[in-house]
Amino acid sequence: MSGVVLPTTLFDVRDAVCRWFGGAYDPETRSYRDPQVRNLGAVRRARPKREDDADYFLGAPAYGALMGSQMWVHIDAGTEKRLAVAGPYGLKEVTSAVVLHVFLRSYAEFAEDAQDAFYELQEAILARLREDPALGSGGFENGGFDIGEHDTGGIRWAMAPAETSEEMTTGYLFVEFSARYFKEG
């Protein structure tokens, strides 16, 4: 398999997805703080111990943003299958279920406006996923991974109904897709 760079790991996939949506990693805050999608705030590898409203509105105008959000990237499940190559050598094809947990927040006067903005963000996240089937990783040929180029069920999403409390409208968006990569073994 000349030209193929191995191995990719689950950690590499998670980091690449985080960078695809959140830009460069900030070790001080343990988050990705350069959102690549409008109305997306901080991107994280796990649920934070403390939620800061500023993380939702990162990069938004100082006043009047219709909504903000933050995303947590989680590898939910996976499968491995061995591919024999030249006798005792082999590769493992790994397929990991990647879940984007997107928490939504709006202080808009009307909940309907907030819900519309939530759906606009959902469309923008799906558009970002469609921009590059390797999400900037270079594909498995270059030590990365791909999404949507194999039989994985595509991209699945679900939007929870908006809820209101004390003049804030909140929501939750679930986006799931599979990432495929190869490891020696």
Characterise the protein shown here.
Strands 1, 2, 3, 4, 5, 6, 7 and 8 form an eight-stranded mixed sheet that branches. Strand 7 and strand 8 form a beta hairpin. The N terminus is likely disordered. The two termini are 14 Å apart. It contains three helices and eight strands. The chain is of the alpha+beta class and 185 residues long. The radius of gyration is 18 Å and the shape is elongated. 20% of the residues lie in helices and 35% in strands.
The quaternary organization reads as single chain
Largest sheet properties: 8 strands, mixed
Question: What count of helical segments does DSSP give?
Answer: 3
Mean residue pLDDT: 88
Keyphrases for this structure?
185 residues; alpha+beta; eight-stranded mixed β-sheet; 3 helices; 8 strands; 20% helix; 35% strand; elongated; disordered N terminus
Per-chain topology:
Elements: H1 10-22, E1 25-26, E2 31-32, E3 43-44, H2 53-56, E4 68-84, E5 90-106, H3 111-130, E6 156-159, E7 163-165, E8 168-184
